[in-house]
Amino acid sequence: MSGNKAIFAGIFGAAMALGGASALQSQGLPVTPAQAAPAAQSTANTTSALGQEALGWLAELIKINTTNPPGNEEAAAKYIAGILQKEGIAPDILPLNPGRSAVVARLKSSAIADPSRALLLVAHMDVVGVDKSKWTVDPFGATMKDGYLYGRGAVDDKGMLAANLAAFISLKRSGARLNRDVIFLATCDEEGFSESSIKTLIAKNWDKFAAGFAINEGGVVIAKDGKVQYTAVQASEKVSYNVDVVARGTSGHASIPLKDNPVVHLAAAIEKIGGYSAPVHLTAVTRRYFEGLAPLQDDEIGKWIRSLDTPDRGEHAAKVISESNPAWSAMLRDTISPTMLSAGVRVNVIPAEARATLNIRLLPGDTIDVLVNELNKLVNDPQVKLEIQSNAGLAAPTSSLESDFYNAIVKSAAQEFGGAPVLPYQSTWGTDSAQLRLHNVQAYGLVPFPLTEDDLKRMHGNDERIPVAAFGKGVALMVRIVNEFAVTK
Ligand SMILES: [Zn+2]
User: Fold this and answer.
1) Could you confirm whether domain 237-388 is CATH 3.30.70.360?
2) Quick one: residue 58, left, alpha or beta (phi over 0 = left, psi -120 to 50 = alpha)?
3) What is the pLDDT of residues 401-411, one digit of tens each?
4) Is pLDDT at 37 greater than 60 in this prediction?
5) 233 has which bridge partners?
């Protein structure tokens, strides 16, 4: 998932109450030593033999350093291929670039494949970089500690990789009759989205994994105070653009200040842009998300969430909600984050140019030109130009909230998490699902592990870890989903 840590912090809202050690275990959450009865110490063991096995696969995958760049995903692809072969499943390694290969495998439902019905289980093998000095354990050591498995990619995205593998293999072992083909796909370069990404993979090998439905990362299972608060199933995602803000002026000797100094003009422009807040609008997905979220919040916030979509109090409601939670604010509007600055060659030289980069996330359906026009009017400085970079994300259609597969995910998550609400979700971060949706795949995002705010914040951060019991619950959920949707009743 390409995004930033603060996002994960925000999607929690007000606390929900409690539960003892057994409640924590039944919800797949780690038990702190203080809460644990001795037996609970076994939370290190997952809730099922398959979960235990998959935990071993996850540990081995963590030990394979697939930091992107350079990626090195081929090593992980070969490891996965070995596991599949042991199960009597023929894997297909799909080379993309040196050291970077994806892997695919298929369980057939019948002699004639019908891609439009097939189900794709997707996860990416690459991980973002680490600052080892900030970790308390080896990021690639797969350390087990206090009921957690630590390591880069434990959650993003090797946990899902191992859970998909477990669900896929469980179908093979059960010998269940499938009503559609089920395809396992491990991709490369999700974090970098460059020459080895799913875009290239689709261009080269679409026939190997064409499908009508897919489950991938992108959504979350929110856990708080020992309880699953809700499950958010991603059905659409915002579209990422990078825009350069370029100020140009007269270069000269710094001892003679000039009125058209580009650093000064850029700083003024960024200050205006930084204070800008785009208008709010709800999409079909966010409207349903907030409807489902309101009853889970404290009364005050719940009241304002319910007023979001009202003509008289909507604007004020959006203001209250946005101020209470940056992630909700980002779900309600196009967003602009200045992320990079560059100017100057020497301290005693006024540069001819100063440049900043804005990372913009558009709501599905919004266009970059409209927003850039707004910003140009706001900056209102002939010396400052806004240049849209070419590496933009692609606006992909929203996956249906009425599809059989969406309903199967909702049913399975509600069963697995004791009836906790399941809400549709529009993520502010990007995933491989956008490319799949552009190829008419009904793709849904769900990292199936009940995770607390602290666990989620560690993605792309330090000491990334996954609660082992939660991992077991995630494996159980994936098994439930594939059985619900792909096995003939
Ligand atoms: Zn990811």
Assistant:
1) yes
2) alpha
3) 999 999 999 99
4) no
5) 424
Number of Cα atoms under 13 Å in the Cβ half of residue 339: 14
Amino acid residing at 36 = A
CA 126 – ligand 1 centroid, Å? 8
Tens digit of each residue's pLDDT (9 = 90 or more) over 80-93: 999 999 999 999 99
CA atoms in the 13 A half-sphere facing the CB of 346: 7
Q: Give the whole-angstrom CA distance, residue 319 versus residue 287.
A: 16
* 189 CA to centre of ligand 1 in angstroms: 10
Distance of CA 74 to the CA centre of its chain: 22
Task: Report d(CA 8, CA 253) in Å as an integer.
Answer: 47
Query: How many angstroms is it from 343 CA to the middle of ligand 1?
Result: 32
Q: How far is the CA of 227 from the centre of ligand 1 (A)?
A: 24
**Rounded Cα–Cα distance for residues 150 and 484 (Å):** 31
Q: Are 245 and 386 in contact (CB under 8 A)?
A: yes
- Does domain 2-217+447-486 fall under CATH 3.30.413.10? My reply is no
> Tens digit of pLDDT for each residue in 66-122?
999 999 999 999 999 999 999 999 999 999 999 999 999 999 998 778 989 999 999
End-to-end CA distance of the chain: 34
CA 327 to ligand 1 center in whole angstroms: 18
Note whether 201 and 95 are within 8 A (CB): no
Residues of the chain with CATH 3.40.630.10: 2-217+447-486
Which run of H or E residues covers position 200?
helix 198-209
Q: Do residues 269 and 245 touch, judged by C-beta distance below 8 A?
A: yes
Q: In terms of Cα–Cα distance, which of 214, 179, 124, 190 is closest to 439?
A: 214
Which residues, chain by chain, have CB under 5 Å from ion ligand 1? 1, 156-157
Q: What are phi and psi of 484, to 5 degrees?
A: -65, -40
397 Cα: distance to centroid of ligand 1 (angstroms): 20
Cα separation, 99 vs 311, whole angstroms: 55
Take residue 147 and report the two structure tokens written for it: 């009921």
Q: Using one digit for the tens of pLDDT, what is the confidence trace for 458-472?
A: 999 999 999 999 999
> In whole angstroms, how far apart are CA 427 and each of 92, 188, 240, 245, 274?
31, 21, 12, 26, 22
- What's the 123 CA to ligand 1 centre distance in angstroms? 8
Residues of the chain with CATH 3.30.70.360: 237-388
Q: How many angstroms separate the CA atoms of 142 and 127, rounded?
A: 14
Distance 357 CA to ligand 1 centre (A): 23
Q: Which pLDDT tens digit goes with each residue over 323-366?
A: 999 999 999 999 999 999 999 999 999 999 999 999 999 999 99
| Residue 127 DSSP label | B
